[in-house]
Predict the structure of OmpR/PhoB-type domain-containing protein.
Amino acid sequence: MLPITGSADTELPCVTIFATDGELPVIGQQDIFAANFDVSVARTEAEARAIVIQQRPDLLLIASETRNDDLPGIIARLREVSRTRYLPVVVLGDEQAWLSSALIFDGHIDEVISSQCRTDIGLAAIRALLRRVRPEALTGRLAFADLTINELERRVEWARTLIHLSPTEYRFLAGLVDEPSHMLTRAHISRRVWGHASDASRQIDQVVKGLRLLLRPLQAEHLIETVRGVGYRLCATPEAQPST
């Protein structure tokens, strides 16, 4: 996927929602706006075409619960002008139906998000796609609960309190926040933090221990939760205390 010219009227990443049946999806306009995106909504192909050409969004989110055989033609028409030729397209709908479709293999669709997923996971998947195909569209900000990470400045805060992390601790925590499911296996952590898939269990345990010590004075030790036999995930509330 090649980059296209960014949004003309805003510095925020711009997302256009095209509701093919006229109804806004579960991950709707207010959710995406609250996640620091500029949002526009279209309920007809004509509206979508006008918005795409005039506003040049960074991503098109098509809400289509069931497979629509007309969708390839719709996407092709929305991409027919040079400025929108490489517009990333995400479909929000029945994940199993769409994943079995040839549309995702022939380049019409870049990503499929289940309409049954939690809003935060869906938004994280959208950010992950933008980071992959349109990195210049993002502001470099990651967030989970009261945790914010400024990737451009490598600045980490919990409830606006600055946390000083080592490079290894930063890569570990940013990896968890950036992952759509907010959960990483130990093998994934090894690859992401140290660049290899070999067993780094002892190093991982030390990183987690250090992060929890830093988070404890902020009453945020619950943030990193152990998933026994798997790895670690982020936890927004202290209800499930992490295991050590």
In short: The longest helix spans residues 119-133. The mean pLDDT is 78. The chain has two domains: 14-137, 141-234.
